[in-house]
Amino acid sequence: MYIFRSIHEIINTVSAARGLLTEMFEKRKILSFRYSDALALLKDDENRLKLLIEKEVIHQNGNFVELDARFMDFFELLLEANEEINTAVIDENIEYLHELMDYYLKERIPARKASYVRNIKITFQKIARTTIRNIMNLQTSIDNAFKHEPTYQIKIAKLENLDKKRINIQQLIDTTENLILHEERLFFQQATDEELNRILLELRRELQLSAHSLIRAQQDIINYLNQIKSQIILVEKIRRVKYLQDQFELRAKSNLAEVLEREHSVLLEGTTPTSFKLSLNFLNSDEARPIILKVIKNLQYRETIRSNEAGAFSEEDLTSQAMYQESINLEETVGDYIQAQTEAIWKDPTAEPEDLFSFLMRYSFRREVNEEERTTLFCQIVSLYESQFRITDEFGVYKNYEYARIYPMQ
Prior knowledge:
Layout: H1 7-16, H2 18-26, E1 33-34, H3 35-41, H4 46-54, E2 58-61, E3 64-67, H5 69-79, H6 88-106, H7 110-148, H8 152-183, H9 185-190, H10 194-246, H11 250-253, H12 256-262, H13 280-283, H14 289-307, H15 315-318, H16 330-347, H17 356-362, H18 371-384, E4 389-398, E5 401-408
Antiparallel strand pairs: 1-3, 2-3, 4-5
């Protein structure tokens, strides 16, 4: 592996081949980039191309070349052009923070303690940038999987895997919050740094916004999966109708004829054929040329749209046992809680109000919701509807952890 001797050497090497590297980066998703094309971009200077290969800026594979992964990652990082969702980086940074804070507490030399604080601030900023980037990539990937993946079975698998990554990002956000508020309390009591406090304030605000975005991503995944399920059911019914029609049993084994007689929607009326024709003389004139070009363009557009359709369902698609769940309406849940407490106080003004967490633990949702999901809903509701609640200094105990007692705003 080639090791550069200085930053000056790296800059000079990249600068001398900037045209080629730009072209290769822009075409990085193409499977192959020809050696001859690379040579042409370097004005047939084969020595420069061999030098790039020697320094492992690019790699040669027979008649093709490709950009080195280190430079690819570097360019994508600076240009924010990477759509990969990487939660391992955040996890590694959190572990690194624990190490740095432990070193800080054990260190006695002020200059070295300041050095640890500097690295801690840099690491917190990395976590913020990576988290935001991951969430942006998550939302983009969710939309792309639903709108552009042609195979329904893969579409479902992609959405379910993205939901797992959403859960991983949420867990890392919770871990970061816990590190700041609880695990490393001793460090934050000793490290009185104004810039660190500002970075932490910005980080917590960005983590809160990220948590809101993850709620939206969860809703999108549930809605998309439910839409796919509806589409599969619809196509299954259409295939059944087609089968009965082919067997000449449609009228005997279905009430389709009766339904069509009662139904008068535009969808079933069909299209009225055009009643005019264009003469050959007119089509050969200059006046008709723009019209002909417009028609050709529309036909090409329709063909493009048709090529992006999901295609036919296989038997395996129709028998897929993917799990779907109903989305929980947080606003409705909050309304039920506030109404319940209002009615309780109206009946007995001396009665103690029930805190939000206890209410959620016994609340009857429309679908089965386990304790972990109820705890997550508690955090989501407090985050989204903070202005409607009164957060107290009291704490309740549930199993092995404490929770803040929260009541409706009086």
